[in-house]
Amino acid sequence: MSDNAEDARPAETYAEAEDALLSRWPETRLAPSLDRIQAFTELLGEPQKSLRVIHLTGTNGKTSTSRMIERLLRGLDLRTGRFTSPHLEKMSERISIDGEQLSDEDFVRAFNDVAAYTHLIDAEQEHPLSFFETIVAMAYAAFADAPVDVAVVEVGMGGTWDATNVADADVAVVLPIAVDHAKYLGDDTTSIAGEKAGILKPGCFAIFAEQSPEVAAVLLERAVEVGATVAREGMEFGVISRVPAVGGQMLSLQGLRGRYDDVFLPLYGAYQAQNAAVALAAVEAFASDEPLDVEIVRAAFAEVTSPGRLEVIRRSPTIVLDAAHNPHGAEATASALEDSFSFSPLIGVMGVMGDKDADGVLAAFEPHFHHLICTQNSTSRSMSAADLGRAAAEIYGEDRVTIVPDLAEAIDRAATLAEAGEAFGDALGAGAVLVTGSVVTVGEARAMLKGRR
């Protein structure tokens, strides 16, 4: 039995809805099964079955690609729903309709639409509904109620047993797969690929980002098993060329249906160009047998945003936010820094979660940071600044590492170091700060820095 019977009572305010959701099992506590979410959505009238769905999995890039897909779909005059996780600053970011996150009032309404049924599932299942299962059901119900033409849905973790997988996708997108969440998904890429391949359903169109050979083999085996149509980055679609530009990059993309030149993407790094190619292919697979109107494609990509992904949040000195939280993501971010910026010195502010590969993230950024300030976020899952600092000193040397547990103070200390560029032998002093290591750390920094502007 659950102790969450109070969830059945309607919430009157956003804070009440948020508190009720947070009282449930956290996202990090898993019992691999779709039984609870299936029973829950059945009680709700199976809203996910009334939707056409583009479903995304992969280790990194899901949220950015989801946002690109949604913007392209809206350019085609389709009404969209988008579900992403985790959130940066506010829980309601996870559910968007027509590109706008739910207002507080709409979020409360979405919660109340499902809350009356939660205790029924809690009572009949071995484990209570989790936070994630509940908010997934809220999203599907809100999308069906809108109604939307297509829902763009990002998995929370993995694929097969992820609560979002109660829906059957028209288009299944698999972004690059690397090791993350090893405790839950396995510590080798083929095991992880097997779990993520579970979003491929009979008859779907599968869009695969570039993968290692062993991962590609697992994905193709699953595609054959379910009779999916497959398109692979580097073969059926991909990036033809990219040139860094002021505020982003200029792209030429080969889609499934045609070629699209002179596309401006206001995001940085080769990995975002690849995400754009994947997003374009996914929308082509979903929407048309003909090439998309190139002007619609250009207009849509030009308006893409991805908060917390190499986001310049402040100037003088420049402060950049990036939610890289595993080695694969950190390496992509580091490469984008090299490609698109010329900061010197670059001061890192890093706070990581205790269950992440901190050594791998530290090592990816080591060649790029002149100095690193180790900090922590406000959650109990955060690695302590002291523990991170000890790990960093082994990689960077003690003289390049400072430990500042308070995040606001850490950012202020980093900004001071960035402004004093001459102290590092750089006469220009064109310094900057990169806040990274965790979505939560970046979200807290973003809220803090926006408040100061």
Walkthrough of the structure:
The protein is of the alpha/beta class and 453 residues long. It has 2 domains: 298 residues, Mur-like, catalytic domain (UDP-N-acetylmuramoyl-L-alanine:D-glutamate ligase); 142 residues, Protein-Tyrosine Phosphatase, Chain A (Alpha-Beta Complex), CATH 3.90.190.20. Helices cover 40% and strands 17% of the residues. The radius of gyration is 22 Å and the shape is globular. About 2% of the residues have low confidence.
Quick structural overview:
This protein has helices at residues 14-22, 35-43, 62-75, 104-124, 131-145, 182-185, 189-196, 213-226, 270-287, 294-302, 327-340, 358-365, 385-396, 407-419, 439-452, and strands at 53-57, 80-83, 95-97, 100-101, 150-154, 171-174, 205-208, 229-232, 238-245, 248-254, 259-265, 311-314, 318-321, 346-350, 371-374, 401-403, 432-436. It contains 15 helices and 17 strands.
Examine the coordinates and then state which fold CATH places here, giving the name of the CATH topology of the largest domain: UDP-N-acetylmuramoyl-L-alanine:D-glutamate ligase
The chain-level structural class is alpha/beta
Weakly predicted, low-confidence segments: 180-186
Q: What does the main sheet amount to? A: 8 strands, mixed
Looking at the structure, what is the overall shape? globular
What Rg, in angstroms, do the CA atoms define?
Answer: 22 Å
Distance between the termini: 47 Å
**Which architecture name of the largest domain does CATH use?**
3-Layer(aba) Sandwich
Proportion of β residues? 15-25%
The overall average pLDDT, rounded, is: 92
**Oligomer state of the chains in this structure:** single chain
Number of strands: 17
Helix content: 40-55%
**Secondary structure tally, helices:** 15
What is the CATH domain class of the largest domain?
Answer: Alpha Beta
Overall structural domain count: 2
Q: Biggest sheet, strands in spatial order? A: 4-3-2-5-1-6-7-8
Q: CATH superfamily of the largest domain, please?
A: Mur-like, catalytic domain
